[in-house]
From TrEMBL:
It comes from the Bacteria. One of its GO terms (molecular function) is transmembrane transporter activity. Keywords: Membrane, Transmembrane, Transmembrane helix. Pfam families: MFS_1 (PF07690). Coiled coil: none annotated. PANTHER family: 2-NITROIMIDAZOLE TRANSPORTER, PTHR23523. The gene is yycB. This is Transporter YycB. The chain crosses the membrane at residues 46-67, 79-96, 102-124, 136-155, 167-186, 207-231, 243-261, 273-290, 296-321, 328-346, 358-382. The keyword Transmembrane applies.
Length: 391
């Protein structure tokens, strides 16, 4: 194998990584804008919609549990290639139409998203050790732009396909396949790694559990917003197109925070203040979007995106900063995202069930605020200037 394949230029590697990142959210953000249409056509109830928004997050957690073994066997480079291909396959499956392919495609795509999410922090730690904050920010910003594109363009795609929501959802397989093809030449084979003892030791460290708690709870907030904000906006009187557009603004708002927060946080010795501030902003803006004046929807939604994007970028940055080396970053990433996403799946489910049980969105909002309070509490430990030791 020649040197160019074994060691791609950092700029080329970074661009390939950004292409993959762009496709790690449309599978999750494209369903929400069409949820009203899907429910109207298929008769899917609120409980079924809750399951539809919950299952992908659960499969994200499952993928994170499997990711370390896949990473050891294939290496992070080829593991990310496999992840991108799985995302494309899951998205394409939705073209078959009906609830079965919709649910199955969402779960399959989520497996690929979770696998990539675990492997990328270790690759960033390995390839960009001096620019971990910047690269995490760029990766997260690009991921958020993909989320915005999915939320904002899916309803117009539905119109382009004659009102067929299944084809509109499946169209996102095309850029995912392109990302897989672009990453393929950069995917180096696995190299020998030390024994996996650190992965076992990490489960005994309180700091690792605090990082996991913050990652899981902020993820729960994010997936509540991805799955339910379009329907909340529709209930507030917006058309399906307008609700999708405003939800896309939320994703657009994530991009600058996803770039700025990791870059700034990596320069701070202690990230607790940044975490508490961004969680507080998220809660305030959520309440403005769901319960505030309709006239403030656009700026409040943009600011809500800034808050949730900052939470996610900070969560990934904390994983990298709390680890001492590439192996430690991979182990902590697997734990924080595996356990975190699995527990986060309960957030969208509980949010929807609270809406169905009590009507309106007040009870659901109480749940959202409680989850945010838990994230802030975990941040007090996760944001400390410490690193996890792997004895």
């Amino acid at each position: 194998m020649n040197a160019a394949v074994r060691a791609p230029h950092p700029l080329v590697l970074g661009c390939g990584l950004m292409l993959v990142a762009f496709n790690l959210r449309p599978a999750l953000t494209t369903v929400g804008p069409l949820l009203a249409a899907i429910r109207g056509e298929t008769g899917l109830g609120a409980a079924g919609a809750s399951v539809l928004t919950t299952l992908p997050v659960l499969f994200l957690g499952l993928a994170c549990v499997l990711a370390p073994a896949i990473g050891r066997r294939l290496g992070p480079d080829r593991g990310i290639l496999l992840a991108a291909a799985i995302v494309a396959a899951g998205l394409a499956l939705r073209a078959l139409g009906g609830l079965g392919p919709l649910f199955a495609g969402a779960c399959i795509a989520a497996l690929g998203i979770g696998l990539a999410g675990v492997l990328i922090p270790g690759l960033v730690k390995r390839e960009f050790p001096g620019r971990a904050g910047l690269m995490t920010g760029l990766y997260t910003m690009t991921l958020c732009l993909g989320a915005a594109a999915g939320a904002g363009l899916t309803v117009p795609l539905q119109g382009l396909f004659g009102g067929d929501w299944s084809l509109a959802l499946a169209a996102w397989a095309a850029p995912a396949l392109l990302a897989a093809l672009a990453w393929a030449p950069l995917a180096r084979p696995a190299t020998p790694v030390p024994a996996a003892a650190p992965g076992r030791a990490i489960w005994r460290e309180s700091l690792a559990w605090q990082v996991t708690g913050f990652m899981g709870l902020q993820s729960s907030l994010a997936y509540i917003l991805f799955g339910w904000v379009p329907l909340v906006l529709h209930d507030r009187g917006l058309s399906t197109v307008d609700a999708g557009f405003v939800a896309a603004l939320m994703s657009v708002g994530q991009a600058p925070a996803a770039l700025l927060l990791p870059t700034l946080a990596a320069k701070l010795k202690d990230q607790r203040g940044a975490a508490l501030g961004i969680v507080g902003l998220t809660v305030a803006c959520y309440l403005a979007v769901v319960h505030g004046p309709v006239a403030l929807l656009v700026p409040a939604t943009l600011a809500l995106g800034f808050g949730i994007g900052g939470c996610f970028g900070l969560g990934l940055t904390i994983i990298v900063l709390r680890a001492r080396d590439t192996q430690g970053a991979a182990a902590l990433s697997a734990m924080a995202q595996g356990v975190g996403y699995t527990s986060a799946s309960l957030g969208p489910l509980g949010f929807g069930l609270a809406h169905e049980a009590f009507g309106g969105w007040a009870a659901s909002s109480l749940l959202f605020c409680a989850l945010a309070a838990g994230a802030a509490l975990c941040a007090l430990g996760a944001g400390r200037a410490r690193q996890i030791g792997f004895a």
